[in-house]
Amino acid sequence: MKSFWYSFWSPRAALGTWECHAPWWESGFDLRSPLSGEQEERVNIVGTIQAENEREVWRFVRACFGRVPEGFQARFCEERPDGWEPFTARFPRAGWMHWPIQADAALALRARPPVRS
């Protein structure tokens, strides 16, 4: 099992459906104007999970939403070295964070089961 560091953009309003028990943090935000012309706030999320490969990481991230929101945009997914710890002064450990944790174990902690699409 490998550790991965990932990042994505999501509409802030969609974070109400995001349920993830592996470490993650809000890393930034921006305002964007979709075709409707109304501004929408997007939030940048960074997080970590243990998985076999990048495909499994993105399956996990999408499942944490239940339903992937319109406007979801994957940014990057990087494999980290053995023994890597995600916690730093910028990204501190919170009491609810489970680490190390594999993707399937993290999904099993969800109160709402993921929607299979």
Low-confidence stretches: none
- Rg over alpha carbons: 14 Å
Q: Count the beta strands.
A: 4
Mean pLDDT: 91
* Shape by Cα distribution: globular
- Elements, N to C (H/E): EEEHEH
Structure commentary:
It is a single chain. The chain is α+β, with helices and mostly antiparallel strands and 117 residues long. It has one domain (2-108): Alpha-Beta Plaits (2-Layer Sandwich), CATH 3.30.70. Helices cover 15% and strands 33% of the residues. The chain has 2 helices and 4 strands. Strands 2-3-1-4 form a 4-stranded antiparallel sheet. A hairpin with a 7-residue loop joins strand 2 (24-32) and strand 3 (40-51). The longest helix is centred in the middle third of the chain and has 12 residues, at 54-65. The radius of gyration is 14 Å and the shape is globular. It starts with a strand and ends in a 9-residue tail after the last helix.
Helix/strand layout:
Layout: E1 2-11, E2 24-32, E3 40-51, H1 54-65, E4 73-80, H2 103-108
Antiparallel strand pairs: 1-3, 1-4, 2-3
Question: What's this model, at a glance?
Answer:
The protein has 117 residues and is α+β, with helices and mostly antiparallel strands.
Keywords:
117 residues; alpha+beta; Alpha-Beta Plaits; 4-stranded antiparallel β-sheet; 2 helices; 4 strands; 15% helix
